[in-house]
Design brief:
amino-acid biosynthesis, mainly alpha, single chain, 269 residues, CysZ-like, transmembrane, cell membrane, EI24 domain-containing protein, 10 helices
Length: 269
């Protein structure tokens, strides 16, 4: 697993070069706009809702002594909850809505890595891509939230909280990496098989997602470049895994097909 994590991280270093070589920048206009708009909504949500949620939490403390201290802690806790939940919502909304624009990028990378002669076009329609991406990201969103609630509580405990915080980042990385890998897997697997494939290669998902999450903390620029770079990196690694395990269909030339058809006749003669 650790080897796959490292390989997924290394894939980011060649993303810019590959994007320029294949002329992929033109596909990123709408996804960047989606990411930027959803990102600003996320930041505004943190700004306006943190204090409100903090005030609600502070009402749990019914005693007068220590009320001010608990109110201060509640404000920070409210901000942490809004930040964590909002980040999860942001990632999955952006990935789901960007699917019809990211899938062609993934397909071009697959075609480039396999070669023109060996590539078999399998791209689905705009509607099917969007519907599948919404299903995948809704499933991942629900599972992330299930893990998030107990981990947020754990992260507030001194010393032990460090482990909780690390687990929050790792789990988020896994599911965001899953979404980025699915832009390629959607052409080869159904929904259930995609889940099994990512579980088997969870290291690739985690490695891709870790850089994705960290890049989001780059002011402004993170909202613009993170998704395109992450998708390119995820696509290159996913294609390599699919090819290594024999899941990619190879298109035979007419001559090869004729040779196969003629072979029984030759044997009979």
């Amino acid at each position: 697993m650790f080897k796959n994590i490292i390989n997924a991280i290394k894939a980011y270093f060649g993303s810019f070069k590959l994007m320029s070589k294949l002329g992929l920048w033109k596909y990123f206009g709408i996804p960047i706009l989606i990411s930027f708009v959803i990102g600003w909504c996320y930041l505004l949500m943190i700004y306006f809702l943190s204090s409100t949620l903090g005030a609600l939490i502070s009402k749990i403390w019914i005693w007068e002594w220590g009320a001010q201290t608990f109110a201060t802690i509640s404000t920070y806790l409210g901000g942490l909850i809004i930040f964590a939940v909002g980040l999860i919502l942001y990632k999955h909304i952006v990935m789901a809505l960007s699917s019809p624009f990211m899938s062609p990028v993934s397909e071009k990378i697959e075609k480039y890595l396999l070669g023109e002669e060996d590539y078999v076009p399998q791209q689905a329609s705009f509607t099917k891509q969007l519907a599948r991406s919404i299903r995948v990201n809704a499933r991942n969103l629900f599972r992330e939230l299930l893990f998030l609630i107990p981990l947020l509580i754990l992260s507030l405990i001194p010393v032990v909280g460090i482990v909780g915080t690390i687990l929050i980042f790792v789990i988020q990385a896994y599911y965001v990496g899953f979404g980025n890998m699915d832009y390629t897997m959607e052409r080869h697997f159904n929904y259930k098989d995609s889940v099994r494939f990512v579980r088997k290669h969870r290291g690739t998902a985690i490695g891709n997602g870790l850089i994705f999450v960290f890049m989001l903390f780059i002011p402004i620029l993170g909202l613009i470049i993170t998704l395109p770079i992450a998708v390119v990196a995820a696509s290159t690694e996913t294609v390599k895994l699919l090819k290594a395990e024999g899941f990619l269909k190879i298109e035979h030339t007419k001559k090869e097909l004729l040779d196969v058809e003629e072979q029984p006749k030759l044997e009979q003669s």
